[in-house]
Design a protein that fits this description.
Length: 278
Amino acid sequence: MVSDSITIASLQKKKEKGEKITVLTAHDYPFARLADIAGIDCILVSDVLGQVGLGYSTTIPVSLEEMVHHTKAVCRGVSHAFVIAKMPFLEVAAPFRDILKSVKILVKEAGAQALEVEGDKEIIPIVQKLVRAGIPIMPHIGATAQDFMRTGQFQLKGKTAEATRKLSDLAHSLQDAGAFAIMLECVPVETADILSRALQIPVLGVGSGAECDGQILVMHDMLGLYEKFLPKFVKVYCDLSEEITSALKAFTADVKNGKFPGSEHSYNMAVEELEKIK
């Protein structure tokens, strides 16, 4: 890592100074490298990989092996950003001995600097044990894959005063357990503001408004590369899908019309060698 690499300490300083933290997902070397060059603070190797990269209908089928494979690729492209890998669905529902084995692979083998673990109050003791073992943990609360499995849809959380209190209690318990940051997905702006002000650690929002200490987006969404589902909270910064499709069509046309490859894209034998053949 270079000297200006992002660390947990530097993320905490950003929180204390009121500087916003940027987080984007990436799942391969090229996109990780571009995010790193752009100065993105954190790269999240998320299980959204299942939908935007592997063609699954949800994140549920993503395996530990797939996460390890893609985390390795991301880490090869990074010299500045802080890399966080997601623990796949149900991995933290196993006995702690098995959880630790999965964590060891993601951190020691794949190179993740921290892990995202999603859930509710049941993950508090797990977070505590992992932190004691030396693993930086970012709990993911609010809308989660577990909720999706129970209801068949992602629902806005923290819509009432009581729900906000419960989220706040959970977030504080996770902070006390040693979490270095909280990932907060799909809650009202007011709820996110309360949590961001109350917690000492960074609150990184996904569809949770501008008052969070940082923002997380799926890179494929913001670049217009995934068209099957676009959440309300996503801002599309460019339509690479259209640009790439146009380029591929142009390539097809050039090949069919004999325009590619041209002489500038071809190699030629030396004249004297060609004479020998003749």
